[in-house]
Amino acid sequence: MWNAMRTTFQSIKWRNVAPRIVADFAVIHCAMLVAFGISMAYQTRADDLSSVSNLANTFRHYYLSQFLFLSLLFPAAFFANGLYTHVRYYPTKAKLERFTLVVFLSLTVFLTANYLVIQYRNPIGRSVSLTFGVVALLGLVGTRVGKEWFIGGERIERRKSSRAPKDGLVLVIGGAGYIGCCLVRRLLEQGKRVRVLDTAVYGLEPIQDLLNHPNLDYVYGDCRNIQDVVKAIRHVSRIVHLAAIVGDPACELDQKTAIEINYAATRMLIEVAKGCGVERLLFASSCSVYGATDEFMDEHSKVQPVSLYGETKVSSEQVLLESASSGFHPVIMRFATVFGLSNRPRFDLVVNLLSAKAMQDGRITIYNGQQWRPFIHVRDLAEAILLLLNAPLSAVDREIFNVGDNHLNHTLAEVAEVIQRVFPGACVEHRENADRRNYRVDFTKIEKRIGFHCKYGLEDGVREVKAAIDSNEIEDYRNIRFSNIGFLREIGTPENKSEFDAAVMAALGTEQSRAGTAGKMSQQYFQVKTTPALPS
Ligand SMILES: NC(=O)c1ccc[n+]([C@@H]2O[C@H](COP(=O)([O-])OP(=O)(O)OC[C@H]3O[C@@H](n4cnc5c(N)ncnc54)[C@H](O)[C@@H]3O)[C@@H](O)[C@H]2O)c1
Predict the structure, then answer these.
(1) Which residue, by CA, sits nearest to atom 18 of ligand 1?
(2) Which of 69, 221, 300, 481 has the highest CB neighbour number within 10 Å of its CB?
(3) Within a domain: residue 41?
(4) For 209-244, how does the pLDDT look when each residue is reduced to its tens digit (9 = 90+)?
C-alpha cells in the first residue's frame, strides 16, 4: 500500500495540482470569513455592540488558533479521494457528482470535529458553522462547475481547431443553383476559397466557367449521401446550405424526396458538421414560413407554413437551432422571394416570370393581386449572405434573419404596375385562385444588426429580364431548364444514390413529427411512406 501511495505521489504533476489545492484552500477560508461577516452583521443590526466586539475577538482567536489547523482537513480529504489525481479524468457529470459528495463528507467531518473536539473550549455558534458549511459547499462546487464550463468550452474549441484549420474554406451546398452560383462568384471575387457540393440537378452550366478557378473546388455529390457530405466538409470552417427542392409545387410533386433533401439531409449535415468542427452554418429558409397572414411579420412572429415546402424549412430551422453549441453556430436566413437574373435564370419566380410573359406574350395574369410578398434581387441576396458569413459571431449566432428590405414588400398588383411601367403595352388580367400565401415581412433586424439593405428594386429586375430577352441571351423563358417544377416534372426528381442512403433518409425523415413544429400538417406529410427497407 505504501508503495502504491509513493508511486501516486511521484506521478503527481505538482505544477498543475498545487494551484488547485491553493484555490480550494482559499475558498474554504473565504467561506469562513463570509460566515463570520454574516454573524457580525447580524449582531450589529441587533445593536449589541459589546457582544459584537466580544464576538470579533472570539472569531479572531478561533480562526488563528484552530480553524487554520482544522481547514487542512479539506485538501487532505480531497487528496485522499483522488480529486487532485484521477477524478479529473472522469466525464464532467460524474466528476461533479463525485466532487459534491466528497465536499459534503469533508464538511460533515469538519463540523463534527469542530463541535465535538473544539467547541467546548471555543464556541463559535452553530449558526456560523452551518453558514460556513453552506457557503463552502456552494463555493467549492461552484468554482468546479464554472471551471468545467469555461475550460470545457475552451477544450472543445481547441479540439475543433485542430480538426478544422481556420483557412476560411467555405462550403456552398447547392452552389450551382440560382442563388448559389451568384454567391459562389461573389465569394471568389472576395478572394475566399470555396467548395461547392451539388448534384447539378439542373446542370452545371451556372458554374461551368468557374470550374478551373484556383480557389474553387467542385464536389459532385448529394447532400443525402453521407460519404459525399463528409468528403465535402473536410477542412471547411463555414457552410452555406442552399440545396433543396425549391418551391411549393416542386415539393408536392414528390413529397418523399422533398422531405429527404429539405429536412432529413439537414439533420445528417448537422451531425457531420459538428463532428468535423464546422463553426458556422448558414441555412437557407424562406419567408414563406409565415404562410397566410395580414400582420407585419418579424422574426418573433408565429410561423404557419401552408405547404410542405414551408414545413420542411420550419422543421430544419428547429433542428438547427436545437443543435447549437459552444462550437457550432447555426444562422437561419429566411429569404424573401427572389427576382433578377443569375447564371442559372429561373422563370418560375413571380417577378421574372411575369416580366418575361409581358415581353414575349404581351399579357400577364395576376392572381390574388392584394396579397403581399417581400422581394429581393438575387445579387442583393448574395451580398446579404456574405455579410452574415463574415459578421462577428456575437451578432448572428443562433439568430433568425428575415433577409430582404422593408421597401421591397409589395402586393402582387404593385408588381404588375412596375411591369407595366417597363412594358407599357402589356395587358394585365386580375383573377383569384386558391393560393392563400400572403405575408408582409419586417426586415429591420438584418438592417440594424449587420447593416444590410437592398440596392436593387423590382424595376431593376424587370429591366434585366427585358435586356436578356432583347439580346437573345434568353431565347425562350418557357424552356424547362428555367423552371424547377417544369424540369422535375419532365426529368423526374433526383433519386437516392443507394438503398442505404434511402434507409438513412427514411430514418431521419420520419423524426419530423417528433420535431413537432408545424402541427398536424407535418405529421400528415411526414407519414408519407419513405423507403424503410434496409439494403440486404
Ligand atoms: N429562389 C427563391 O425565391 C427562394 C426564396 C426563399 C428561399 N429560397 C431557398 O434558397 C435556396 C436556394 O434556392 P435557389 O432558388 O437557388 O434554388 P435552385 O433550385 O436554383 O438551387 C438549388 C440547388 O441545390 C442543388 N441540389 C438539389 N438537391 C440536391 C442534393 N440532394 N444534393 C446536392 N445538391 C442538391 C440543385 O442542383 C441546385 O443547384 C433553397 O434552399 C431555397 O429553398 C429560395
Answers:
(1) 177
(2) 221
(3) yes
(4) 999 999 999 999 999 999 999 999 999 999 999 999
Same domain for 186 and 142? no
Domain contains 460? yes
Number of the ligand 1 atom closest to the C-alpha atom of 223: 32
Query: Which pLDDT does position 40 carry in this prediction?
Result: 79
Residues 109 and 182 in one domain: no
CATH code, 396 = 3.40.50.720
At 10, is the pLDDT very low, low, confident or very high (cuts 50, 70, 90)?
low
Last residue of a domain, one of 121, 145, 162: 162
Whether 47 and 189 share a structural domain: no
Which is nearest to 133 in space by CA: 99, 163, 109? 109
What is the distance in A from the centroid of ligand 1 to the CA of 119?
76
CA of 193 to the centre of ligand 1 (A): 21
- Which residue reads 459562389 in cell numbers? 184
Q: Are strands 409-411 and 372-377 parallel, antiparallel or unpaired?
A: antiparallel
CA of 493 from ligand 1 middle (Å) equals 13
The Cα angle at residue 442 between residues 325 and 465, in degrees rounded to 5:
105
Buried b (16+ CB within 10 A) or exposed e, 47-76: eeeeebeebeebbeebbeebbeebbebbbe
Q: What is the pLDDT of residue 495?
A: 92
- The C-alpha cell that represents 427 in the structure block: 395587358
In a domain, 535, yes or no: no
Cβ contact 375:340 at 8 Å: no
**Distance between CA 322 and CA 316 in Å, rounded?**
10
3-state secondary structure 391-447: CCHHHHCCCEEEECCHHHEEEHHHHHHHHHHHCCCCEEEEECCCCCCEEEECCHHHH
CA angle, residues 513, 312, 193, in degrees to nearest 5 = 130
Domain that holds residue 82: 16-162
Between the CA of 484 and the centroid of ligand 1 the distance, in Å, is: 9
* d(CA 337, ligand 1 centre) in Å: 13
Q: Report the distance separating Cα 154 and Cα 160, nearest Å.
A: 10
Residue 71 Cα to ligand 1 middle (Å): 66
Question: What local confidence, expressed as pLDDT, does residue 91 receive?
Answer: 47
* Same domain, residue pair 185 and 139: no
- Mean pLDDT for the stretch of residues 175-184: 98
Pocket of ligand 1 (CB under 6 A): 174, 176-180, 197-202, 222-224, 242-244, 246, 261, 284, 286, 335, 337-338, 344, 349, 484, 494
Nearest CA to ligand 1 atom 40: 242
Q: How many structural domains comprise the chain?
A: 2
Closest atom of ligand 1 to CA, residue 346: 20
| Closest residue by Cα to residue 109 from 83, 74, 69 | 74
The contacts of residue 430 (CB under 8 Å, 6+ apart) are: 365, 366, 369, 413
Where does residue 88 rank: exposed (0-12), middle (13-18), buried (19+ CB within 10 A)? middle
